[in-house]
């Protein structure tokens, strides 16, 4: 058992997350997601979590495992073109994960998503949460526009508003 990790997660207050991702930042992310989705057939879902629930800590869940769980629970996989993308920010572990549905994962190498995650984490280390999030959305949008450009009607299938868990 990693006591330090347990403490980081159990003592991660909600205000800490909302300080990093304040209303203006969440509004900017929502706007960026909406603008992004008008250019391609992908669906972006942005989720920020402070600390993991105790059950996840107990079983030593990684940020990737939690991202996969949220990908399923939030039904990011349930888009018409199987092109949902989850951008998951885990504050206590200082980790970012991107989970892509099979429709886009078949077209994009995993290391492209990893590069976006690492760039985002670097911005976050410098306390630039807004800039890091917007740059990640822009980079993901460029990839989605390249592979799934919006040439026909493009319904909005997932909420654009970031979710703070």
- CATH class bucket: Alpha Beta
The domain tally reads: 1
CATH structural architecture: Roll
Residues in β-strands, percent: 5-15%
Q: What is the chain-wise order of helices and strands?
A: HHHEHHEEHHHE
CATH topology: Diaminopimelate Epimerase, Chain A, domain 1
Number of helices: 8
Poorly predicted runs: none
Q: Could you estimate the helical fraction of the residues in percent?
A: 40-55%
Structural class: alpha/beta
Overall pLDDT, averaged?
93
Q: What is the radius of gyration?
A: 15 Å
Count of individual beta strands: 4
Strand order of the largest sheet: 3-2-1-4
Query: Distance between the terminal alpha carbons, to the nearest Å?
Result: 24 Å
Query: Rough shape?
Result: globular
Sketch the major β-sheet. 4 strands, mixed
Task: Give a written overview of the molecule.
It is a single chain. The protein has eight helices and four strands; from the N terminus they run αααβααββαααβ. With 165 residues, the protein is α/β, with parallel strands linked by helices. It has a single domain, classed as Diaminopimelate Epimerase, Chain A, domain 1, CATH 3.10.310.50. The protein has a four-stranded mixed β-sheet, with helices on both faces. β2 (84-90) and β3 form a beta hairpin.
